[in-house]
Amino acid sequence: MAYIVPELTDYSAQSLLKAFADAKLAFRDEMRAITSEQEWKAFRDRWMARKNGLVTQINDQLKAAPKEAKRELGQHLNGLKQFIEKETNDWHEFVEGGTRDLSVHFQSVDITLPGIRRPIGAEHPVIKTLNEIVSIFRKLGYSVREGPVIETDYYNFEALNFPPDHPARDTQDTLFIAGQESKPLRERLLLRTHTSPVQIRTMENIKPPIRIVIPGKVHRNDPPDASHSPMFHQIEGLAVDTNITFGDLKGTLDHMAKELFGSGVKTQFRPSFFPFTEPSAEMYVSCFICGGSGMRGAEPCRPCKQTGWIEILGCGMVDPNVFEFVKDNGYDPKKVSGFAFGMGVDRMAILKYGVDDIQLFFNGDVRFLQQFG
Ligand SMILES: [Zn+2]
Asked: What residues contact residue 24 under an 8 Å CB cut-off, 6+ apart?
């Protein structure tokens, strides 16, 4: 039944409260029943017309009210006006998504018009590369482990065979958390400079044999330029068992390179140094851009610097000193051996997609990122 303004005879507080609550409810119910622009106009006139609209009628009651009720009645009336204004605004926004043109909403639906296309997101090229690498190892039976990005000095350095005064700590350009000076060195917090702490954390919790890959963000105090970023991504791997040899390392990583860059690539291992592996090596793949010739037609091949080889990761046999830190959990260096490797995912993505500036990955420019979608 359509709302009509009641003739008030009782001006008590309770009666006024009920009368105005009824008016608000009626307004809201009627508004929610509107289904066309025509109905909207009729509704608006019925309630808001200056001459004899329902709000005007209610306003007229004010004049007939006894003096002592006028103040309270006036407050209720203001409340009603505010309510109507707010409801109307909300309704406009609900109906038109912010536009004020009601005709857009109420025009008849043309089912031959194309629908609204919503842009679909895509994996970021770095994450895509990271997932590809992880999936290669999952197929080999590796499981994925993750760990904290904010680490202690102990897990980031000490347990990985970097003693407090080891020169390798300087080369890491570590970002330390401020205000840690009162703590012992090994408890001080920092942004992990590599994903290696997760190797120790895993060996503390899981007895050998293990085969794990560790993807994640790492930070170093490098000013951003075409090949450096203070934040980048790593994937490390660790395999520990009895009788793991350097041959297992070579076979595993050679397989990964062929899966990632194509079955035609060759791999090469060159001696290197890392504190947590002994012996250590850098793995190179034959340049998949120039096919190993060092030239692209008459032009020199830039990614391999004309050498025909590209360095893609560091690796080695786990140093027995590292096992000493987790010896109690079954990692007796006399009984088990293992290999570890680590690579920069961003660098792999740069090589894979032929990108010449790492900053492009992190600037958030959709025009660049769309190319990988
Ligand atoms: Zn090349």
From this structure: 80, 83
Count CA atoms within 13 Å of residue 137 on its CB side. 25
Neighbours of 41 (CB within 10 A): 12
Mean pLDDT of the chain, nearest integer: 87
Model pLDDT, residue 6:
84
Q: Ligand 1: distance of its center to the CA of 125 in Å?
A: 22
Q: How far is the CA of 238 from the centre of ligand 1 (A)?
A: 30
Write down how long the chain is: 373
Tell me the percentage of the chain whose pLDDT exceeds 90: 42
Q: Ligand 1 centre from 307 Cα, in Å?
A: 7
218 band by pLDDT with thresholds 50, 70 and 90: very high
Looking at residue 151, what is its pLDDT? 95
151-182 pLDDT, tens per residue?
999 999 888 887 777 766 765 588 889 998 89
Give residue 259 CA to ligand 1 midpoint distance, Å: 19
Question: Can you spell out the DSSP letters for 45-88?
Answer: HHHH-TTT-HHHHHHHHHHHS-HHHHHHHHHHHHHHHHHHHHHH
Ligand 1 centroid – CA 237 distance (Å) = 27
Amino acid making up residue 226: A
CA of 290 to the centre of ligand 1 (A): 4
DSSP-assigned letters across all residues of 78-146: HHHHHHHHHHHHHHHHHHHTT---HHHHHSPP-TTS--PPPPPP---HHHHHHHHHHHHHHHTT-EE--
43 Cα–ligand 1 center, Å: 74
Distance 354 CA to ligand 1 centre (A): 11
User: Ligand 1: distance of its center to the CA of 286 in Å?
Assistant: 8
CA atoms within 13 A of residue 63's CA, in its CB half-sphere: 5
Q: CB-hemisphere CA count at 13 Å for 225? A: 4
What φ, ψ does residue 309 adopt, rounded to 5°?
Answer: -130, 145
Residue 344 Cα to ligand 1 midpoint, Å, equals: 19
Asked whether the predicted pLDDT for residue 98 surpasses 50, the reply is no
* Ligand 1 midpoint to CA 126 (Å): 22
Q: Tell me the pLDDT tens digit for each residue of 11-23.
A: 888 888 888 888 9
